[in-house]
Amino acid sequence: MADPRPLVLLHGLGQSPIVWQDFVSAMGASRPMHAPWMAGLRPKDPVGFDLGTAAAGLVDELELQGIPQADVLGVSVGASVAMHLAVERPDLVGRLVLAGPIVRPSAGALRMQKLALRLMPESRLVDLGVSRPRMLAVFDALRAFDGVDALGRIAAPTLVVAGSRDRAGIVAARQVLSAVPGARLETVEGGGSLLNVDQPRALAEVTRAFLEAES
Predict the structure, then answer these.
(1) Which CATH number fits domain 7-212: 3.40.1280.10, 3.40.50.1820, 3.40.50.720, 3.40.50.2020?
(2) How far is 178 from 70, CA to CA, in rounded Å?
């Protein structure tokens, strides 16, 4: 039997790669996993964020690691980057898992998130390993983002996962299901928008089942 493809883990808004620890523990040692920083979110990157640039950075990362193809799991904005990668470089993506994806964010929701970020104490941001200016740059980049048209160009087998408490994620999940041929949905009871933190074991279970299923 062929070795399983590596699994690339793309973190969400207000997160750093370290947040995947509980998920990785729950997944076990069944496959190699990589949790890179996304370009524009690394601590020493210039402030500014672009989905295309972040996806191109992942291409470079895969080439550096010698990985010809990987399965990709993205959460929140990481899911948006994963979608971009699957559209622009379908040869690199085996299977795609989108958890709480951002597909077409509303202006009102982005304003509320920016306000919450501005009110967050600096000590909390330091604990999370994120920068306020970089986070605000992500919100600015998402303001003009509309991933609905790109969904129909995704060829990789796709699983979308939504937390039952994540209203925006459920709306986005329905958009994915209606546009991506053969896409499947899993709902995690009690989960929010960042399932790798809210429900890492549940996310690992549905991810493992999807990746191990026969094509």
Answers:
(1) 3.40.50.1820
(2) 25
